[in-house]
Each structure stands twice: as structure tokens, then as C-alpha cells.
Amino acid sequence: MTEEENNLEKLELEARVIAKRIIELTDEKTGQYIYDEELDSYRLAEYRDIVILSRSIKGFGDTLYNTLMASDIPVYLEDSKGYFDAVEIRIILALLSVVDNSRQDIPLASVLMSPMGNLTENDVAVICDYAYKSMDKKACLFDKCLLYLEEFENPIADKLNRVISIINTLKEEKKNTSISDLIWRALDLTGYYLYASAMPMGNKRKANINMLIEKA
Q1: What span, in angstroms and rounded, lies between the C-alpha atoms of 200 and 19?
Q2: How far, in Å, CA of 216 to CA of 145, rounded?
Q3: Closest by alpha carbon to 27, among 53, 47, 51?
Q4: DSSP letter at 107?
Q5: Across-strand partners of 42?
Q6: Could you tell me how far CA 64 lies from the centroid of its own chain?
Q7: 78-134 pLDDT, tens per residue?
């Protein structure tokens, strides 16, 4: 394990510990009671009573944000980058990057292995392994995907064909479509808006997506 991977594992572990503690503090049986001046009485701690202080959130803010959201804990990250680090926003931005230039390997891999593409890491490895034997070693991931589609008809190809078709459709439609309308079209084709709504903190994720469209 590299030092970067080890640090990431530590951050994820710390984030899970924080999430567990917040759940304990707000639980009806094990929770912490606090004095409320407005009520002039004690009450069970709520999410809005909890603040997480950190000397620096660089490299940790997005991990903490996504961990708390996954635990169904509402969270606001006081950081200009926090909004764009939300997983639902990163996936949409990755798709837009691929639509703009499909020969960007990292955004394309993110889309393929997201709920939009539904491919696994192993699926992508199979695609790349086949291309490694047949193509220039410097070929981009998009070209490797096209080659795999030409050669195979199997479950991996079925999933791959669906997402590549969506990308090609959006590439064609972007010529006469505003960015905000293109995002809505992408959400419709992929079903990602409904998927995000069904995730933990779905209303928050929908609000993030709506804000992205508004900014666009």
C-alpha cells in the first residue's frame, strides 16, 4: 500500500468514527441531552447542534462529506470546493468532460464505473486487457472501449454499449443545446437524477444537482 493510499484509508476510518459518534449522540436511547435556552429545558441533541472542527479540511473534507451523507447524516461543508466534491456532482461533471472530449481517461473511467455506466473495476480491466494485446499501448480508454464493442457481445459489452451510446448522443446534441439543458438530458438518459434521489440524503443530493443546473 502506498503512503497516499494509507493516508486515504486513515481519513476514511476517521470519517466513519465521526459518523458513528454523531449517530450515538442523536440516538433516542444513547443520545446526549443538552440545555436549550429557547425551550428553557433539556432536549436530545440534534444534527444541527453538532459542529466538526478541523485544523484543515484539505484532503479530508470530501471524504468526511461523502461518509456522513452515506450514513444519512445531513452535512454542510464550509468550503468553496465542498459542493463540487459531492459525489453526485463529480459524476455529472465527469460526464460533461467526456462529452466535451471523450479521450480523457480519468473522467471516462469515472463515468463507466459510476451508476451511469454500471461497469465494475474488473469490467474495465477486461476491456483494457483485451486492447493491450491488440492496440497501441498509448491508445485512450475511449478507443479501447470502441474496439471491445466491435469484438464482443456479452454482458460487459451490453453495459458498455449503453453508456457509449449515451455519450455519443450527448456529443451530437450539445451542438444545439445549452449546458443546463444538456445536463437535464444527461440525467434523463442515464436515470441518474432518480438514482441520486434514492441514495442516502436524496433530497440534499437532488438540491445539489439542481444547484449545478442553476449555475450552468
Answers
A1: 13
A2: 29
A3: 47
A4: H
A5: 35
A6: 13
A7: 654 555 668 899 999 999 999 999 989 999 999 999 999 999 999 999 999 999 888
pLDDT digits 0-9 by tens, 121-133: 999 999 999 998 8
Place of cell 468526511: 64
Helix, strand, coil: what percent of the chain each, to 5?
65, 5, 30
In this structure, which long-range contacts are made by residues 41-48, counting pairs with CB atoms below 8 Å and at least 24 apart in sequence? 47/22, 47/73, 47/74
Are the C-beta atoms of 200 and 71 separated by less than 8 Å?
yes
CB of 47 closer than 8 Å to CB of 73:
yes
Which residues does 15 contact at the CB level (< 8 Å), separation at least 6?
60, 63, 64, 67, 68
Owner of C-alpha cell 480523457:
104
Whole-angstrom Cα distance, residue 76 to residue 200? 15
Contact (Cβ atoms closer than 8 angstroms) between residue 92 and residue 186: yes
Residue 166 has pLDDT above 90, yes or no: yes
